[in-house]
Specification:
CATH superfamily of the largest domain: Transferase(Phosphotransferase) domain 1
CATH topology of the largest domain: Transferase(Phosphotransferase), domain 1
Helix content: 25-40%
Strand content: 15-25%
Low-confidence stretches: 1-27, 223-228, 258-279, 286-291
Largest sheet: 7 strands, mixed
Shape: elongated
Distance between the termini: 40 Å
Bound molecules: 2-acetamido-2-deoxy-beta-D-glucopyranose
Mean pLDDT: 80
Number of helices: 18
Oligomer: single chain
Radius of gyration: 31 Å
Number of domains: 3
Structural class: alpha/beta
């Protein structure tokens, strides 16, 4: 039961991850493969509605969500789009990241331009690009595809010579009806093929075509002995230099490829088995017992909450870890210490520029924040290559999960009272952050439904904000793009003057998400922005003050509609394009209480 729940959660979250970069909760998704496929979607026209269909993640385990794509264990393995009027120019390099690809077929379309670069796709077995408008020559690297079984290039506009294909796996090969020239290479693989594999080219020759190739041009007349020696010397030197240069280049390329391979292998491992990661790093770290120099370098865990049972780095590293979520800022683990204490550990990535001092200062500051609607920071740890933040763990579930997971039959709907309680908790938490970090440019900066932890007990739902206070730790705009405030209109417009109002915007979007049950950024499929949700609500509401926007799950609560729509109005103010027109959080709280008041009077 629990497992099924988790899976569907993953599914929804993957959708979110892809379409919003809103991240957090994903495990095995391969965004680089998706990006490669988007190149096809976005550079070719087709009679299929690829734009409508190729959205969200391509693969959920072995299941493909995208037409023409086959998946295996979250990876894309086949791309088959045959006879669907694909037309346009395919960028030569885009498939490299789909590392486990075994079959690619664009048969019977109208794609033009050079044949795609297939370098490094070592598992590729079938390349079916016949009946298109490809031009240029057959890339020499195709000879390197060690698993290639079928290569179909017939009926294109290819020219140049046939490279010396000789991989034993290659049993089906067709380059007929092109403009190829020159001799068919005399490799054992090509020798075995029939005439029809080569037929109808401009000027091919070879045994298979019953057409002898012209003899090599006659050798130049002999050169007098002395001259010949000189010349030979010359040739020798040139050959030597050339081969030295080639060797250098070769070594450079090899070492480059090797480093790429190494890096990508690391990546895969990281993606592969989640819990292992924490363990692997941890194992390395704990393998220095008794080495006082090393343990000095490793330093201590810093504790901000003196009441929490103290544990040391060693305890933490020995803890069993399980991935809770993967976000733009790093991976979050659920760590169970040997004592039974359970904590959430966030391993920050890409904060290498950060100095120890800056990190500790910010963490000590954040560690002092105590509020029932804010996830507490218990401890933190800094090492140049590792930065950990240890949070209290009250629940594994996020608001995103609660709102969007398992939509459809069998879902227990979330009533308005619960939704209202969640909105109020978020507002309180955010108002408190704005109060206690008032000097910060944007105190939370990463408010989104994935970063609201929802916990249920006998008294109902309680929500807490997490992932707050990172803006000062992220240097430069590029890094700030990882935060939820990057979806605010002022950020999108490149306005550097971010303020608390960017948080208010994110809060407004969460309110709309709770009221409508819709995922921001998925309404128009414009992934860069969340304002599609507010725009949509604004349009619907302006045309006719209407309940169309309400989530189906709360639509039946008719007597609450007024309250819902009043809150919608407040949410729209919070998401105003102009930051200065948005209310402050303290004002938002006051307004919410007033709405509540009216409701009680009416009841
Ligand atoms: C794409 O189309 C296929 C086949 O029609 C369908 O099964 C799949 O659900 C669609 N995917 C999305 C994301 O709409
Ligand atoms: C090669 O393709 C041509 C044109 O489609 C076809 O007539 C021929 O039978 C094919 N030959 C082989 C060996 O596949």
């Amino acid at each position: 039961m629990r497992l099924a729940f988790k899976k569907s959660f993953c599914y929804v979250v993957v959708v979110l991850f892809v379409s919003l970069n809103l991240v957090l909760c994903v495990e095995d998704f391969h965004p680089e493969e998706r990006d490669a496929l988007l190149v096809i979607r976005d550079s070719l026209n087709s009679s299929l509605d690829l734009h409508g269909n190729w959205t969200g993640p391509p693969c959920i385990e072995n299941l493909s969500r995208w037409i023409g794509v086959t998946c295996s264990n979250w990876h894309v393995v086949h791309i088959v789009l045959e006879g669907v009027n694909l037309s346009g120019f395919l960028p030569p390099t885009f498939l490299q990241n789909i590392t486990l690809l075994t079959q690619i077929s664009f048969r019977n379309n109208a794609i033009f331009g050079p044949l795609p670069n297939l370098t490094s796709l070592v598992f590729l077995e079938q390349v079916l690009l016949s009946f298109n408008r490809f031009s240029g020559s057959i890339p020499g690297e195709y000879v390197e595809l060690q698993s290639l079984e079928v290569l179909e290039l017939q009926q294109n506009y290819l020219d140049g010579k046939i490279p010396p294909f000789d991989q034993p796996s290659l049993t089906s090969f067709n380059v007929s009806y092109n403009h190829l020239v020159g001799p068919i290479p005399e490799t054992s693989v090509l020798q075995k093929l029939p005439k029809s594999s080569f037929d109808n080219n401009s000027d091919l020759c070879g045994k298979q075509l019953d057409k002898l190739c012209p003899a090599e041009p006659p050798a130049p007349p002999p050169i007098p002995a002395v001259e010949r020696n000189k010349k030979r010397l010359h040739v020798w030197i040139i050959a030597l230099i050339a081969s030295a240069a080639a060797l250098c280049l070769f070594l450079i390329i090899i070492s480059f490829l090797f480093s790429i391979r190494k890096a990508s292998r690391k990546e895969t491992r990281r993606d592969g088995s989640a819990g292992y990661v924490f363990g692997a790093w941890a194992r390395k770290m704990v393998s220095y017992p008794g080495n006082s120099e090393e343990s000095q370098r490793l330093g201590q865990l810093e504790f901000s909450n003196k009441n929490f049972p103290v544990f040391d780095l060693d305890d933490l590293l020995r803890a069993s870890a399980q991935v809770l979520g993967r976000g733009n800022l790093g991976v979050t683990y659920k760590a169970t210490l040997e004592t039974g204490t359970v904590v959430a550990v966030k391993r920050l990535s890409s904060m290498s520029e950060l100095s120890r001092k800056e990190f500790l200062r910010q963490m000590q500051l954040l560690g002092q924040i105590k509020h029932e609607n804010i996830v507490e920071i218990i401890s933190f740890y800094y090492l140049e290559e590792q930065k950990l933040i240890i949070y209290e763990l009250t629940s594994d579930g996020s608001l995103f999960e609660l709102l969007h997971e398992g939509r459809g039959a069998g879902r227990v709907s979330l009533d308005w009272t619960t939704r209202l309680a969640i909105i109020k908790d978020i507002a309180k938490g955010l108002a408190f952050l704005h109060h206690s970090l008032s000097s910060h440019k944007v105190p939370h900066a990463n408010l989104k439904s994935c970063n609201v932890i929802v916990h249920q007990d006998s008294q109902g739902y309680h929500s807490k904000l997490t992932d707050y206070g990172f803006l000062p730790l992220l240097k430069g705009k590029k890094n700030a793009e990882k935060l939820a405030i990057s979806k605010s209109p002022e950020f999108v417009k490149g306005n550097k003057k971010l303020s608390h109002k960017a948080d208010v915007y994110c809060f407004g979007i969460i309110m709309l998400e709770i009221i409508t049950g819709k995922v921001p950024g998925q309404i128009l499929g414009v992934e860069e922005t969340t304002s599609d949700l507010s725009d949509w609500v604004r349009t619907v509401v302006n045309n006719d003050w209407s309940t169309d926007i309400l989530d189906l799950e709360i639509l039946a609560e008719k007597e609450r509609h007024d309250g819902m729509l009043e809150l919608t109005e407040l949410a729209l103010e919070c998401t105003d394009m102009a930051p200065e027109k948005r209310p402050k959080m303290s004002e938002v709280l006051k307004r919410m209480e007033e709405i509540e008041q009216i409701k009680i009077e009416n009841d």
